[in-house]
User: What shape does this take?
Amino acid sequence: MKALLLEAYKQLKVTEMSEPTLGPEDLLVRVKACGICGSDIHGFDGSTGRRVPPLIMGHEAAGVVAKTGERVTQFRPGQRVTFDSTVYCGKCHFCRRGEVNLCDHREVLGVSPGEYRRHGAFAEYVAVPQHITHPLPDALSFEDAAMIEAVSVAVHAVTLTPVKLGDTAVVVGSGMIGLLAIQALRLAGAARIIAVDLDESRLRLAAQLGAEVSLNSKQRDVTRAVRDCTSGRGADVAVEAVGNSAALGTALASLRKGGALTLIGNLAPRVELPLQSVVTRQIRLQGSCASAGEYPVCIDLLARKAIQVGPLISAVAPLAEGPAWFERLYNGAPNLMKVILQP
Ligand SMILES: [Zn+2]
Ligand SMILES: [Zn+2]
Assistant: This one.
């Protein structure tokens, strides 16, 4: 099969590889669309240590079942499917509690951090266990379905956020996850969403996708602007989708007393925390990792266009153009959101 192989850091090549071998509970999926994730870009140069070559990356994908392992009962060849990026064991303490994203034996597709290597979906075929796979409705294109992984990350974060009907929510960072969080917050009952970013084009998208107020933190005093539209109190909840000290500070300062902040961004491994402000204003901090059981609802929300992903897809290109798109994304080409490759 053809595969986009990371041969060495910063060296991607479309090459011929053998098809993955199938375990008894595995499905062989003919990949139709696979999105390039920010984590693939950060892994591509070795900076995260989570994409040790040689590796086929890619964990945001959809396709058609080509073959099934001998003990597969829930799927048959020809079925359109998508799958979770997390391969969880289903048996450990956390899996049994339904916290599959916290599985003790968690592996991620298209990742090789040293302890394991799981080839991903930038290839004609990928092997995935049936228990992480979900059928797709006909109404959902493979390209839109490749966005479900990102949607599930945003939906999971909002599920963990104590948002109530009528609340004001601040979303710091209007990248892919922030723009999806805006839409999920709206569905969860936030009556007013304030988007914060440094990039005007992203703020325009935020407005298009449901943010009532868009604030460029380069030009505006975000804390004051949020207070101005919340009777001086601050927002009820906030989502931080960047992951550095500045963004965390902005999110915390925009909250009212007793507000809650959900943290998804984790660009920097450590940040500065205004401890006294958090303690004395009784702020609740909540980390959010990947997703845990939100795939079916995300598939439904996308199929019914309750969450829009079309405006977030910048390009759809054949797998052969993969190396060039990785270069472009790595070099920070402007105005690019999601790039989807078609193996
Ligand atoms: Zn991803
Ligand atoms: Zn587990």
